[in-house]
Write a structure and sequence with these properties.
It is built from 26 helices and 82 strands. The chain has 1487 residues and is an alpha+beta fold.
């Protein structure tokens, strides 16, 4: 298995892996293609993919605190950028790198795009193409609104219906400006409400087109608008012209759904659109128009500013052809291929179809390229793959697919290839394959002829001259490179004649005396042999019993049938040879022809159906049933299964495509008679069974929940086939199992066609219910009957059970009132006949029956019991006094023995846990959620976060920094790159008494950000400052150097290490660290965790050990968790979640969400506080709450509810749903939000209250902390392999080479020690330890949330990581620790491992030292690459402004320090210039 996974990863790395589909967490809002890439927008992300749908980058665009919807997405290919606009606050537009969308190039607050639910169109307009000064505008058309729009948080300015925006800084007015060199405004305004549907531009000529639905109750219309592209925005508006698009002859359709221009180099310019009617939205047609004929007028519904050149008018444009009338089309895309127009159509039920138009706009048959399993609608826009031009992209809800535009390879013969009627597919003679022309180089390629959709591959013509008959055979194809063709014509085994052949025809002449003759024609092309048989007869002599039969015989013989005089003639001249279905249309096939009156079922899945039935007349003549989808190219035939009846026949319905198919019956002569229609739908699904258990005798009603269940033929339980019954719901009755296997699950599947679809749930058989006795009591005229039963796992409902009570020989129905685990309560209504008792009770549960005989009345038992109790009470009263003293003594002895047994048991259990502990924790967590570099660095630089930290990165919510400010920062940036100034600056600040350690850390991080683009200089500065630090008199103890962060340079060193080791951290250490954190989290939750104190039974830290709990009697549970999807009660597939009986409800929620993320690799759509859970019991759901009316209360303290409290069993079904919020309630959604949570509630640790504990004696057990210390060791054993893997990944040497930064800095320390004549090797060891493990790795170990996103570091997890971090640092220590029995447990845990780790550390230091040195140039190149890699991620201007505040505050002290260093006057002048510039900036209020 590991080998297979490794190979899969290898395929990913080398880039040979590609996808045909990709699914996303949210629905797709828009997608575009550009620069050989695909960009998809969902509610929360923009995803960048290669053309083969391999994801390259993801960019978050929205979250709870910054809600945003991207409404414009435009690839600007010539500029290598991606323009996006969204709704954040009042709107914005952002320019991203087209090759890496994580890089933001420019951001501006502006209202360019629409708000979330508006219709809009946006595309790029290129002008002056082919001229020296070309340019591009962004055209945006949006819904008409008032001038000011109120959104939930802001008062937003609307920028008009139609706007042309600049796309470059170099354009007049700058980027995203709508002004131009002309002073006049430019706009197009509709008179009423409009819906913008599509927009695009053409290059030759350079025009822009807009398609819009005018929404009017009285006069709705589809309008096309056309403009000439120009660098003058006003001229573009003035050139506006357009027309109403009228569609169609059968009924008015005044709404456009989707459109596509047909790109071509010349005229005419065709355009296709999908139209529908408002009153009948599913009735859609596809029409084609000639946009070259748009009249020179402006539609009356629109006006221009400045005024348009054309006058207003109401002329309409009619379609050149209505090419397809098909239900529920949603999208269209078209392209020109030679003389053909190829059209791709998407449908509402998830199909992608292709059809071809010839020069005369006649349509071919329809080919289905893709068919979805469900009914997800195809997105209105489709795009072609710009890389290989052989695929098209379609979107279906949350999925994008890359579909091949041809399917040539599915056709195995020349005949099948030709029958596809696809001009893009042809037969390659050399390769003997059906392929595209470009795949058939230097070979004959045979395809359908232009301007012909002739269905037959071979047609025959016969002519007679004198006594000679000429038979002509014609292949309805065209070919390249003169394909070789040979023909033979035989009658029996003898040649009829000598044939002559010139591709694509051949002929044969013979004497008319040889007629009639049964001729076999054989045509050979390459390795393809085509054979046709025909009966040659003298055309005028052909006669039959009926005109229809005579017509069929005439056409079959290659003759010409005349419908006018009903005669058969010789063919004269060039006459096409039609099929008899076409030539003989309208002629009756006779009274005895088969006739279809009904077909059942007529609605099936596209997988087909077994045992369908046709009813009709004369059906014994039928040999086959023929199916042909609507306008599809090929037909499918199936055999008759049972044709013994003249009025009924059985057959199997074959697979098909979604939609209607024509069905006819075929007789022996090949003719197809009568007609019926069948509708193919989507596939089926089975998401749930209700209930999932049955009793052994069977006949329990099991409801099946899923999709398209009407198509199901049978239900299969194990090997049994059961009928699925439909009556509003779908259900079946279970069979009995004579030899059932209790608790053994049986798979359940649904049969449709030749496909078995498995249900998510399995069916389990349990023993039949056991009813023991019954009793009754009179309630007025009714009789209340209570039936005792043994508790079982059947969850019997009121619908499952029937009860009859017999009284005086007459049966009476006992109506079920309530069913409990050990009793069934029913009532016999007396009515006019009083029923006072029951002699016999008959109980039926499915096929299980039980008879219960009459019992003695219950009051007799009560009387006897009372007498016995009185006697026993009297006896006990006499004995109590005599034995009280003795019992007290015995109770004390028993309690001591119990206590001793409990302690012995706890110690033994701890020993067992320790000896049997094994690591069953996760080994693989899928994709690791690394923080990107800039956010990782931000947490290292500014661990406290806050506004200052947020200013340091360029993020989506940040307003662009103005150019004027950047100019001032540039001067300051140049100043700090003077090392003399910067060292004086640092020393001057550190000498100030009011300059705190916090200030030093902030300045160090600001310097790191400001100089991140020049890491070689930052490194040089750090070395200089470190040498100065070493030379300070205060560092008389060299072993203390770099131990703490008490100077600017020490913090700079921390930051520098983080920058240089980020790559090593991600590649080598990230996975072991993430696995360790995940393993720790799992191990902690493996046992009880107190929800109030967060202490756990399994931990590494003694302070967090849960030893005070009075009851550790917990059991593991496996829960089947279902997630509510939709509003109709639908649920997802079940997810198995491990939990404990002692878990609180909030702890269960947390485990559910953690399991979801571990399994699927992404978090659930809602957070923990946003969900509720329910427990299914007896077909009903019980809400599970942290605290409710049933919660146990001790004094004023409430115990949190657990799964044990709700009696949730193993294997229970839990449903997750969205929390129901009822405004205006308190925002508190969890009891943990209560400020007094820890004092008002308790979980496993009892509160300290004075109370009679006689009902709960176990809560007074003596607890000793030392008993549970073995749990620390158990936890250590469980995670030990993860700890060792992490440690060795840190001091490991990939390829026997340490990271270059480590080698470089260790060599620097060695050089400084040699320079300062430090001879003690321990000093250098401590320097290296303080600079790398202590300064960097400990920070990472204790703060994994610095490295990974969405990782919550709880106080408990932090305490456990501290123990591991202490062991890590002890491994670098040079002193041997002497540990005794009183030593802290965190030291004792790893005491035996530390010596081995120390040896490995020493070897690591030695290997680094022995490693060849890194040259200065090599390391400089490394640093430059790191700078360049992240050059646009930090806001250097913001860092410089913050640094200037320190320069301004200590200006005189810095000046004095420069004087002490004899700094040049030029340097001082530059410093003063920076101050003047920033002071001017303050005065002008730019800051």
């Amino acid at each position: 298995m590991k080998t297979v996974l490794a190979l899969i990863l290898l395929f990913f790395k080398v880039g040979v892996y590609s996808l045909t589909e990709n699914n996303f967490n949210g629905d797709i809002r828009n997608f575009v293609v550009g620069n050989g890439k695909v960009f998809v927008v969902t509610d929360s992300q923009i995803i960048q993919m290669k053309h083969d749908l391999i994801v390259e980058e993801r960019r978050e665009i929205s979250n709870l605190t910054h809600p945003n919807t991207v409404t414009i997405l435009l690839p600007f290919q010539t500029n290598k950028t991606l323009i996006t606009c969204g709704t954040f606050e009042c709107g914005y537009c952002e320019v991203l790198d087209l090759n890496n969308i994580s890089t933001s190039i420019y951001w501006e607050d502006m209202s360019a795009g629409p708000f979330e639910d508006e219709s809009s169109v946006a595309f790029l307009v290129d002008f002056n193409q082919g001229e020296p000064e070309t340019g591009t505008y962004m055209l945006v058309a949006r819904k008409k609104e008032d001038t000011v729009i109120q959104n939930p948080q802001h008062k937003c300015l609307h920028n008009g219906v139609f706007t042309l925006w600049n796309t470059l800084h170099s354009q007049h007015g700058g980027i995203f400006s709508k002004i131009h060199s002309e002073s006049t405004d430019h706009s197009i305004s509709p008179e009423g409400d409009v819906e913008w549907v599509d927009g695009f531009q053409t290059s030759s000529p350079s025009h822009s087109y807009l398609l819009v639905n005018v929404q009017s109750l009285t006069a709705p219309a589809v309008i096309v608008l056309k403009m000439e592209n120009s660098n003058s925005k006003s001229d573009m508006i003035k050139s506006l012209q357009g027309s109403e698009l009228q569609c169609c002859d059968d009924k008015p359709r005044r709404r456009l759904l989707s459109s596509s221009g047909v790109n071509s180099s010349g005229s005419p310019f065709y355009w296709v659109g999908v139209f529908t009617a408002h009153e009948d939205p599913e009735n859609t047609v596809l029409a084609i128009y000639n946009f070259s004929q748009i009249p020179n007028q402006v539609p009356s519904q629109f006006s221009c500013s400045p005024a348009c050149r054309a006058m207003k008018g109401d002329a309409v444009l009619t379609p050149r052809a209505v090419v397809l009338n098909l239900t529920s089309m949603t999208s269209v895309a078209a392209e020109k291929k030679e003389s053909w127009i190829v059209i791709y159509i998407g449908t509402r039920n998830g199909q992608l179809m292709k059809m071809v138009l010839d020069k005369e706009l006649r349509s071919s048959c329809v080919t289905v390229l893709y068919r979805s399993d469900d009914d997800r609608m195809v997105f209105p826009r489709m795009h072609f793959d710009q890389v290989d031009h052989k695929h098209i992209y379609i979107a279906l809800r949350n999925q994008i697919r890359r579909v091949a535009v041809t399917q040539c390879d599915v056709y195995r013969t020349l005949r099948d290839c030709r029958a596809s009627q696809d001009p893009l597919c042809g037969w390659c003679v050399t390769t003997s394959m059906c392929s595209t022309n470009d795949e058939c180089s230097d070979s004959s390629w045979i395809s359908i002829p232009e301007a012909s959709f002739e269905k037959n591959l071979i047609t025959f013509h016969t002519r007679e001259r004198s006594t000679t008959v000429t038979l002509e055979l014609h292949l309805n194809v065209k070919g390249t490179h003169n394909p070789t063709l040979t023909c033979t014509f035989k009658v029996g085994d003898r040649n009829l004649c000598h044939s002559t052949a010139v591709f694509p025809s051949c002929s044969c002449s013979f004497s008319s005396e040889r007629l009639p003759a049964n001729v076999t024609a054989t045509v050979t092309v390459g390795n393809q042999i085509l054979t046709e048989s025909l009966k040659l007869r003298s055309c005028p002599d052909i006669t039959e019993n009926s005109p229809f039969a005579q017509c069929v015989a005439c056409v079959s013989a290659g003759c010409d049938w005349s419908n006018s005089n009903k005669k058969c003639n010789w063919i004269s001249g060039s006459v096409s040879n039609p099929t008899f279905n076409d030539a003989c249309q309208g002629l009756s096939s006779g009274e005895n022809a088969p006739k279809i009156t009904s077909l059942e079922p007529s609605l099936v899945s596209f997988h087909g159906r077994n045992n369908a039935v046709i009813k009709g007349e004369n059906l014994r003549m039928v040999e086959k049933i023929r199916f042909q989808g609507f306008m599809e190219c090929t037909v499918t035939e199936t055999k008759v299964l049972d044709g013994s009846s003249d009025t009924l026949l059985k057959f199997n319905i074959p697979k098909g495509n979604k939609g209607n198919a024509k069905v006819c019956v075929v007789t022996a002569d090949g003719l197809c008679h009568s007609s019926a229609t069948i509708t193919y739908g989507s596939t089926i699904s089975c998401t749930r069974l209700q209930p999932t258990v049955s009793w052994a005798s069977g006949r329990r009603k099991i409801q099946v929940i899923g999709e398209n269940l009407a198509y199901v033929e049978t239900v299969h339980v194990a090997s049994d086939a059961i009928t699925l019954i439909s009556n509003k719901t779908f259900w079946f009755h279970t069979y009995s199992l004579s030899k059932y296997k209790e608790n053994v699950p049986f798979s359940v599947s649904l049969r449709v066609g030749n496909l078995n679809v498995s249900c998510t749930d399995k069916l389990i058989y349990h023993p039949d219910p056991e009813f023991t006795t019954f009793s009754y009591s009179n309630v007025e005229k009714d009789l209340l009957v209570t039936i005792q039963k043994t508790e079982d796992k059947l969850n019997i409902s009121t619908e499952d059970i029937n009860v009859q009570g017999w009284f005086k020989g007459n049966p009476h129905v006992c109506h079920i009132q309530e069913i409990k685990s050990t009793a069934v309560i029913c009532k016999i209504f007396g009515g006019n006949k009083d029923v006072t008792s029951v002699d016999l009770l008959k109980v039926e549960v499915g096929d299980f029956k039980a008879d219960l005989v009459k019992n003695t009345p219950v009051y007799i038992y009560i009387l006897v019991a009372l007498i016995i109790l009185i006697l026993i009470g009297s006896l006990v009263g006499v004995l109590i006094h005599r034995k009280s003293q003795r019992k007290m003594s015995e109770r004390m002895n028993e309690r001591l023995e119990e206590l001793e047994c409990e302690i012995r048991s706890e110690i033994r259990q701890g020993f067992v846990d320790l000896q049997t502990e094994h690591s069953d924790l996760i080994q693989n967590v899928g994709a690791i959620p690394f923080l990107d570099y800039k956010h990782f660095a931000l947490k290292i630089f500014f661990p406290e976060g806050g506004p200052l930290a947020n200013m340091m990165i360029k993020d989506i919510s940040q307003v662009a920094v103005k150019i004027e400010v950047d100019e001032k920062c540039q001067v300051f940036s140049a100043l700090i790159r003077d090392q003399t100034f910067l060292t004086c600056f640092v020393h001057a600040l550190e000498e100030q008494k009011n300059f705190s350690i916090k200030d030093k850390c902030v300045v160090a991080s600001l310097l790191t950000v400001a100089l991140h683009g020049d890491l070689p200089y930052l490194t040089q500065l750090m070395e200089d400052l470190l040498q100065s630090l070493m030379d300070q008199p205060s560092n008389a103890q060299p072993k203390l150097l770099l131990r703490r962060t008490e100077s600017i340079v020490e913090k700079v060193l921390t930051n520098w290490m983080s920058i240089c080791l980020y790559g090593f951290l991600r590649e080598s250490v990230g996975q072991p660290l993430f696995l360790l954190v995940s393993a720790l989290t799992q191990q902690i939750s493996k046992g009880p965790v107190d929800a109030v104190t967060e202490k756990a039974l399994y931990t590494l830290n003694e302070d967090w050990l849960l030893w005070q709990a009075q009851d550790f009697n917990f059991s593991p549970l496996k829960l089947n968790v279902l997630f509510a999807v939709g509003t109709e009660g639908e649920v997802s597939e079940s997810l198995e979640v491990n939990a404990l009986t002692c878990d609180t409800i909030e702890q269960v929620k947390e485990k559910i969400l953690q399991t979801f993320q571990r399994k699927f690799g992404f978090p659930y759509t809602q957070q923990q506080r946003e969900i509720d859970i329910e427990y299914e019991k007896g077909g009903r759901y019980t809400p599970l709450e942290e605290v409710d009316g049933s919660s146990e209360v001790q004094g004023e303290v409430t115990m949190l509810n657990t799964l044990k409290h709700y009696q949730v069993p193993d294997g229970a079904s839990i449903k997750v749903m969205t929390k129901k919020l009822h405004a205006p309630l308190s925002p508190q959604t969890s009891v943990k939000d209560d400020q007094n949570f820890s004092t008002k509630y308790f979980h496993l640790i009892d509160p300290d209250i004075d109370k009679d504990e006689s009902n709960h004696p176990e809560r007074k057990k003596l607890k000793l902390k030392e008993i549970y210390l073995t749990k620390l060791l158990s936890t250590k054993v469980a995670v030990h392999s993860f700890v060792e893997n992490l440690f060795r990944s840190i001091w490991g040497m990939p390829n026997n080479k340490a990271p270059s930064a480590v080698k470089y800095f260790f060599d620097f320390l060695d050089a400084q020690a040699e320079k300062k004549k430090v001879t003690d090797p321990d000093v250098v060891h401590i320097w290296k330890t303080n600079s790398l493990p202590l300064r960097f790795w400990i920070n990472i170990l204790k703060n994994p949330n610095f490295v990974f996103s969405d990782l919550e570091k709880t106080p408990h997890l932090d305490a456990c990581l501290s123990v591991i971090a202490q062991a890590f640092m002890d491994s670098f220590s040079l002193t041997d620790q002497q540990l005794g029995k009183h030593a802290p447990t965190n030291k004792l845990l790893y005491a035996k491992d530390i010596p081995q780790y120390k040896q490995e550390v020493k070897m690591y230091y030695k290997l680094v030292k022995d490693q060849p040195s890194v040259s200065s140039q090599e390391f400089k190149t490394f640093l430059q690459d790191e700078s360049k890699k992240h050059e646009s991620e930090f806001n250097e201007s913001a860092a410089l402004r913050e640094l200037y505040k320190y320069m301004d505050r200590y200006f005189s002290e810095i000046t004095e320090k420069l004087n002490q260093r004899d700094a040049s006057s030029k340097l001082k002048e530059e410093m003063n210039r920076v101050k003047e510039l920033f002071d001017d900036m303050k005065k002008s209020s730019w800051t």
